[in-house]
Amino acid sequence: MNILNSLCLFTLFMILIFIKQALSIKCWECRSDADPKCADPFDNSTFAIGDCRDASLPHLPGLRSTMCRKVRQKVHGVWKYVRSCAFLGEPGIGGDERFCLMRTGTYNIFMEYCTCNTKDGCNTSSTTLISSILLSLLFSVHYVFR
């Protein structure tokens, strides 16, 4: 296989990887009231990451999930965490995922919404996942130049 064929194969492979990444996102889906490992610090050892392409809202048919969300709420002194696919809104505040939207209310109520779409599983409290794009790129470069 000559270098031109290898380069074409590599380019096609990368295009397919990026299309897959652009069309769907995978998010952690859990509730801390059902499993305490869903709270912070997040322990994803017992959760499967969910594919948001399969998620839907019955009252908004046709709307696709394109982001992940983590909600941290305190109601009457009790903290609860919810991690899920997100359908509406924008990532972070003004597109900056480092910032979360915070709301407070009367009677000791606090809510924080963190929304992201930079990578699969971005709705965790700490990142330990290696990007599949990076792994694919390393494999492809090794294959082409061996």
TrEMBL record:
Subcellular location: Membrane
Position of the signal peptide: 1-24
Keywords: Glycoprotein, GPI-anchor, Lipoprotein, Membrane, Signal, Transmembrane, Transmembrane helix
Primary localization: membrane
Superkingdom of the source species: Eukaryota
Membrane association type: Lipid-anchor; GPI-anchor
An example Gene Ontology CC term for this record: side of membrane
InterPro entries in the record: QVR-like (IPR031424), Sleep_regulator (IPR050975)
PANTHER family named in the record: ATILLA, ISOFORM B-RELATED-RELATED, PROTEIN QUIVER
Protein's name according to its UniProt entry: Protein sleepless
Originating organism: Cryptolaemus montrouzieri
